[in-house]
Write a structure and sequence with these properties.
The strands form three sheets. The chain has a three-stranded antiparallel beta sheet, with no helix packed on it. A three-stranded antiparallel beta sheet has the order 4-5-6. The chain is an alpha+beta fold. The protein is elongated and about 80 Å long. A hairpin with a 2-residue loop joins β4 and β5 (54-60). α3 (148-156) packs across α4, α6 (179-202) packs across α13 and α9 (237-245) packs antiparallel against α12 (268-280). Helices cover 50% and strands 15% of the residues. It has 14 helices and nine strands. Among the domains are: 10-73, no CATH class; 84-206 and 283-304, no CATH class. The structure holds zinc ion.
Length: 305
């Protein structure tokens, strides 16, 4: 097959991405001729094998076998679909659209979880994790199978749910009738955090230009700076909710009563509420909320089909 249109063969337009590690150089992914980024799993790399007078991209897997780039791409999509197997298919549908709009999300790991597996999920629908020594990429864990979970959240996290409804331009009553919408909102909110991290930290200008830039600690420091401004400094709403349920928030409130009264916070219940509102207004939370609302509004037809 001859590739039309120019002197540069297509295979030469693939740009392998590399990273220096302590043991040498590792391939982290490849940018395709049409500008899409595909990250590699640990141990994967790209090679170009001769085929007639052309070269064809293949992916070398960590076990040494080679598959064509096209087959590798299809396999990735199949793996992705498996992820959403037990879930409402709308999660998977939304996610595939997102990958087209935000190619950097190819670098995200998505995992379904339950509150039995992840105690953090008791008062929330999902959370995201920054890369760590085991995972070079960010990850989100979201409850995608149990719809009743979102019914509970509408009650337990009413302030946040009201905010989500307002951003979507629907009434809180409509959200109460369709708790699965909240599930999608939270799913996309967590993706929004990861997208913020990928676009503005891991793949951002500073990361490209400064070899000492550490996106994880930069992102974490920025988050900590935001968190200490909250009514219960450093604590997220799930933690405050837990303190309240376990009866610890009342003594905490009594201890700092004078301070809270001066801030117009009049009771432990009021503290729970105002803490949640202040949290929603943190810049990183607003970014994720806006991301979720924009995506849901764009793909509303998937949601209501
Ligand atoms: Zn968040």
């Amino acid at each position: 097959m001859k590739i039309p249109g120019g002197p540069v063969p297509e295979w030469q337009l693939f740009e392998p991405q590399i990273k220096k590690t302590e043991t040498g150089i590792e391939e982290t992914g490849v940018i395709t001729p049409d500008g899409q980024y595909f990250p590699f799993d640990h141990g994967e790399s790209i090679a170009f094998i001769r085929e007639g007078n052309q070269r064809k991209p293949v992916i070398k897997l960590s076990d040494g076998t080679e598959v064509s780039f096209e087959a590798w791409k299809i396999r990735r999509r199949e793996d992705l679909k498996k992820l959403f197997e037990g879930a409402d298919p709308k999660y998977g549908e939304l996610y595939l659209r997102l990958l087209e709009d935000f190619p950097e999300l190819e670098q995200l790991s998505v995992k379904a979880g339950t509150k039995e597996q992840y105690p953090t999920l008791e008062f929330t629908g999902g959370f995201w994790k920054r890369p760590d020594s085991q995972n070079p990429n960010p990850k989100i864990i979201v409850e995608m199978e149990n719809q009743a979970h979102y019914q509970d959240l509408l009650r337990d996290r009413e302030e946040s749910a009201r905010e989500a409804a307002a951003l979507l331009g629907i009434s809180f009553e409509e959200l109460l009738k369709n708790p699965e919408i909240l599930g999608k909102f939270i799913f996309l909110h967590e993706i929004g955090h990861a997208q913020d991290y990928l676009a503005n930290f891991q793949n951002g200008e500073k990361a490209k230009n400064d070899p000492n830039f550490d996106p994880v600690s930069e992102n974490l420091d920025k988050r900590k700076e935001e968190m200490v401004t909250l009514p219960v400094p450093g604590e997220n709403p799930v933690g405050v909710k837990k303190m309240y349920k376990e009866g610890r928030l009342t003594s905490y409130f009594e201890k700092y009563k004078e301070y809270y009264l001066s801030k117009g916070i009049t009771s432990p219940e009021d503290l729970v509420k105002k803490h949640e509102l202040a949290y929603r207004n943190l810049p990183s939370e607003k970014y994720a909320d806006q991301f979720a609302a924009d995506v849901l509004k764009k793909y509303w037809s998937i949601l209501v089909s």
